[in-house]
Amino acid sequence: MLDERQNQRHPFYDSLLDAIPEAVTVVDRSGTVLNWNHAAEQLYGIAEEDIVGQPIAQFFQRASLMLLQVMDNGLPVYGVYHQPRPDKHVYINAVPVTDHHGELVGAISIEQDITDVVRLNDERFHQQDLGTGEEWQPIFDTANRDLKETLTFLEKLEALDPASSLLMVGENGVGKAILARFVHSEHRSGSFVSLDCRALTEGLLDIELFGQGASYFAQESTKKVGKLELAAEGTVYLRHIDKMPIVTQVKLAQAIRDGGFTTTDGKFTKLCCQVIASIDSLPDADSASVHGEPPSPPLDRELLYLFQQIAIPPLRERREDIPGICHFYLRLASKRLGMPTPTLKPEVTAAFAAYTWPGNLTEVQRTMERLVITGGEAPLGFSDIPAAMRPKTVKDVTDAAVPLGTLSEELERERIELAIAQTGGNKAKAARLLGISRGALYYKLRQYGIGD
């Protein structure tokens, strides 16, 4: 049977399936397994020859129900959490498949195994030490290849040229300021001076950066020292440098290039600090303003190319790092608030790894503070985390839409017990919730010994 099915498939098809790192299951309209790739074999320990040609329900009751439901309603499901075994955590995408006539022929399920992410980051959680106060360490202790390469380059650059100008590129909240402070603490002896370029007008920003010499008629005490001079042997960190007026950008570029600048009283001041700037994303020269809004000042090209660019990816591209970062901020919040550190169930760690975290580290920090404040002694589960972060589960997807009679005995009993609990023991309401008669419910209660 298996050989016959394999001979009917294009040879490239098998190679494609086995090249996919996620577990792939293909079933026909009746739920019979047509394809089971190498990753699925590894994930579940079931050989291809043992499952292909067999009903998927013989192996996975919940997954079978979900695939049948996807085919019945024609609607795909994405990012559904499932724990097929106590030691396994997966996220499932399932889609119906139609032929060129639009007729339903089956469904495909793709499962991403995140078990190692949960396990490894739980281990890292127990190894974390908050005694050093170095916030950058767990945040940039990364398994992300691109970020690793970036940090390795930064380390070599700072060792060879600690005065080099840096441009931190990344979305709000990815840790640009944290990394800038780390670079400063490792290589500079002076002050760390920060300035948000959105906060001041052109004239005031010039004065803040370069200072203002005493006027001819004014007292010497009216002289204002700029941040570039104030941070001697230290660091000036300029947030949102792309919002800096173009004239000020040109002056800054000249100061970096010449190694100093001339104040309004004609005095040349040597640039003795490191300049680190940040920007949410690199400018696109061809991009137009959005919805008719006036465009932001362009980032001066000379200034841009004077910086060494350090790209920091958002958390959604660092999924393998997310649980460890969450655990770190959870412990940090507990220490700061003087409260016990809550324990997270593995499914919560898995949910955090799958969530996109649009607010990046800032959102993580506030979320963990909330869990410390609201959490109790019991391990925290899905119901304890913000609703937007709770993934759908296979149980959520299948319970409401599948008739009670199609469930296995184990799942049928589970569904009945849940209905009884939800209705406060009211049998009539429970029967309506289950879509069966009251008599049928009483029969099921006796059958399973529920309420005895």
Automatic annotation (TrEMBL):
The keyword Nucleotide-binding applies. InterPro entries: AAA_lid_NorR (IPR058031), Homeodomain-like_sf (IPR009057), HTH_Fis (IPR002197), P-loop_NTPase (IPR027417), PAS (IPR000014), PAS-like_dom_sf (IPR035965), PAS_4 (IPR013656), Sigma_54_int (IPR002078). It holds the Pfam family PAS_4. PROSITE patterns: PAS (PS50112), SIGMA54_INTERACT_4 (PS50045). SUPFAM superfamilies: Homeodomain-like, P-loop containing nucleoside triphosphate hydrolases, PYP-like sensor domain (PAS domain). Keywords: ATP-binding, Nucleotide-binding, Transcription, Transcription regulation. Residues 9-61 form the PAS domain. GO terms for biological process: regulation of DNA-templated transcription. This is Sigma 54-interacting transcriptional regulator. It comes from Alicyclobacillus mengziensis.
